[in-house]
């Protein structure tokens, strides 16, 4: 398994987009990664927009970016909540400063915008936040997945196969560079 022994952090809060949470998490786990689900409270059940539950492993203030090789931010309405937590912004900025892969899909670009890390990047998202991405200084493309340096962005649920595959590839590439 390509990611055996590697850890990826995934943010969660209420009203995440169910498929956008679970599909990448399962794909990362299939590749051997340990994916820690991190939210406002540890050992707490959060529900997706369609009611699918997920239980957090840790709270935001209990984790360190240095323990992980990548960050995943799902879409839905959760990103609008996530971007209001100082620890979420701090962790996102730390992943970015360390040039670790950060994957976001759909509305999750809001978290990266609030962390002030998108200026000068080329990204995609749901078309609904195109203006937000452009106003934050990024170039927006209408493509299923866009990779610019360490940011992997996806549009919406139909793009999950290409998006998740590319995120796994970027985490593998990053981990191989760290071995050198």
Descriptive notes:
By secondary structure, this protein is of the alpha/beta class. The protein is built from 6 helices and 11 strands. The protein has helices at 18-30, 78-82, 86-97, 109-114, 130-135, 160-179, and strands at residues 7-11, 34-39, 45-47, 53-55, 58-59, 70-73, 102-105, 122-123, 139-140, 145-148, 151-154. It has a 7-stranded mixed β-sheet, sandwiched between helices. α1 (18-30) crosses α6 (160-179). The longest helix is centred in the C-terminal third of the chain and has 20 residues, at 160-179. The protein is globular. The model has no long low-confidence stretch (mean pLDDT 97).
From the helix content, strand content and strand pairing, which structural class follows?
A: alpha/beta
* Unreliable runs: none
Helix content range of the residues, please? 25-40%
Largest sheet at a glance? Answer: 7 strands, mixed
Number of strands: 11
The average pLDDT score comes to: 97
Count of individual helical segments: 6
- The radius of gyration over CA amounts to 14 Å
Strand order of the largest sheet: 5-2-1-6-7-11-10
Give the H and E element order: EHEEEEEHHEHEHEEEH
Shape: globular
Q: What is the straight-line distance between the termini?
A: 19 Å
Beta-strand residue percentage:
15-25%
